[in-house]
Amino acid sequence: MTSSYQQQLNDKVERISAQFNEFNPPELEVFESPASGYRMRAEFRIWHTENDMFYAMFERNDDQQKQVVRVDTFDIADQSINDLMPVLLDALKTTPQLSNRLFEADFLATLSGDMLVTLIYHRKLDEEWEKHARALAERLNIKIYGRSRGQKVIITDDYVVEKLTVNGQQYAYKQIESSFTQPNAIVCQHMLEWACNAVQPTTRDLLELYCGNGNFTLPLSTRFNKVLATELAKSSVYAAQWNIEKNAVNNIQVARLSAEEFTEAFNGDREFRRLQEAEIDISAYDFETVFVDPPRAGIDAETLKLLQRFEKIIYISCNPDTLYDNLKTLAQTHKIVKFALFDQFPFTHHVESGVLLEKI
């Protein structure tokens, strides 16, 4: 396993180094993942037969037809998920009120030991289901969340609290069911440390676009005087604000704006009531650095123009192809001074990258 892991990682390093060579970056910093047990999320179909039920996934055969694959263990998932899988399945099998028309089971684990299981059904969930689900949650010391069409039933919580350590300091994060979180917590800690260490502490301010639940926002706040973070999704904004309060951080404001909307506000093209209601005055910030962690589609043209006005840009990317395209614009005004690869998704073609750019 170790030798095959190193080979797949070496292949990624060669591919990324070649793809970005035209930008004359510094030597690529490489952050490895554990070869197994690295994934904190797992989603399985529940497959019912006449005499049994089991976890299942699908793969396509040579004719591109889906085939059911029974899953008893899942090597890439965290050990806590693997430990829970058979115990949970046995409990479901012996409890008809929980197994009847059960369609899917999703696991969300944490390094902190918190565990949430979402059970998804093709039927309405009633009080009998809730009673048995609550008893099972207490017996297994986990959180259970039930879903069916148009219905959500929370047993205790619909979130976990993860604890990540960055440069010796621990941060608590609320991670809400079905919201985006980094699936590889070990590599995520490397990413957070790299981003923080990419810049020296300063008395100036940071702008962050696409902040999500504040994953990067919290540790980055130690490097800057103030942070203005933007995020459009309400659930992520709520989680970010919870995380800021939970970690007793007092120099962050969160604006519920998309990157495109913030660009309009920053340029004075449009006023937003959401900024006024949150008592956020963009003109009060002394920005020097901007941090971005955009979706796979990358950054739109107007936001790229906005980024070009900053002295420093920290760009975390889950898609090297859109990063490459965006750098064609950013390289007109900035140069890459740090370049990193984070193996967030071992044994796949996916790569997480990081660049620090400074104005030419």
Give structural notes.
- It is a single chain.
- By secondary structure, the chain is an alpha/beta fold.
- The protein has two domains: 211 residues, Vaccinia Virus protein VP39 (Rossmann fold), CATH 3.40.50.150; 120 residues, OB fold (Dihydrolipoamide Acetyltransferase, E2P) (Beta Barrel).
- Helices cover 31% and strands 30% of the residues.
- The strands form three sheets. An eight-stranded mixed sheet has the order 1-16-17-15-14-11-12-13, sandwiched between helices. Strands 4-3-2-5-6-7-8 form a seven-stranded mixed sheet, with helices on one face.
- The mean pLDDT is 95.
- Keywords: Methyltransferase, S-adenosyl-L-methionine, Transferase, tRNA processing.
- It catalyses: uridine(341) in tmRNA + S-adenosyl-L-methionine = 5-methyluridine(341) in tmRNA + S-adenosyl-L-homocysteine + H(+); uridine(54) in tRNA + S-adenosyl-L-methionine = 5-methyluridine(54) in tRNA + S-adenosyl-L-homocysteine + H(+).
- Dual-specificity methyltransferase that catalyzes the formation of 5-methyluridine at position 54 (m5U54) in all tRNAs, and that of position 341 (m5U341) in tmRNA (transfer-mRNA).
- This is tRNA/tmRNA (uracil-C(5))-methyltransferase.
Could you give a short description of this structure?
With 360 residues, this protein is an alpha/beta fold. Helix content is 31%, strand content 30%.
**How would a textbook summarize the main sheet?**
8 strands, mixed
The averaged pLDDT comes out at 95
Sheet with the most strands: spatial strand order: 1-16-17-15-14-11-12-13
Q: Which outline best applies?
A: globular
Q: Uncertain segments of ≥5 residues (pLDDT<50)? A: none
Strand content range? 25-35%
The second-level CATH architecture of the largest domain is 3-Layer(aba) Sandwich
Q: State the CATH topology of the largest domain.
A: Rossmann fold
Give the termini distance in whole angstroms. 44 Å
Order of helices and strands: HEEEEHHEEHEEEEHEHEHEHHEHEHEE
Helix percent reads: 25-40%
CATH class of the largest domain: Alpha Beta
Number of structural units classed as domains: 2
CATH homology group of the largest domain: Vaccinia Virus protein VP39
Backbone structural class: alpha/beta
**Count of strand segments:** 17
Radius of gyration: 22 Å
Q: Count the DSSP helices.
A: 11
Pfam family, one: tRNA_U5-meth_tr
GO biological process, one term: tRNA methylation
GO molecular function: rRNA binding; tRNA (uracil(54)-C5)-methyltransferase activity, S-adenosyl methionine-dependent; tRNA binding
GO cellular component, one term: cytosol
